[in-house]
Amino acid sequence: MEMKSSRQLYKKLLFLYTAILVCVVSALVIYFYTSTKNRFLEQRLNYTGMMNESAAAYLEECRDIAEYIHEDLYKSGMELSDVLRYLTEEPWDYQRHRLDIYIENKIKEYKGTEKFFADAFQAYQSLNHILLYSYERDEMTEYTRDGKSYRRKGGSELKERLERMDFAGEDGFSYLKEIRDPSTMQAKGCMLLGFQSKKFESIWKYYSQAELVVYNDAGSAVFDSSGSCDAQGILKAEGSGRLEEMLGAYIRQAQSGQYHALSYLEKKSAAAVPLPALLMIFSVGGTVIAVGELAVRYYLKRLAARLDRILNGMTKVMEGDLNVRVPVEKKGDELDVIAAYFNEMCVRLDGHIKKQYLAEIEQKNAEMSALQSQINPHFLYNTLEAIRMKAVCNGDREVGKMLYSLAVTFRAQIKEADVITLAQELHYCKKYMELFEFRYQNQFQAAVECPEEYFQVPVIKFILQPVIENYFIHGMRMREADNKVKISVVKEEEVFRLIVEDNGRGMPEKEIEEQNRKLKEGIMEKQSSIGVANVNRRLKAVYGEECGVMMEAGKMGGLKVILTFRPEENEEKVTESETKSREETGDEESNAGGR
Question: Which of 18, 350, 495, 593 could form a disulfide with 322 if both were Cys (CB 3.0 to 4.6 A apart)?
Answer without folding.
Answer: 350
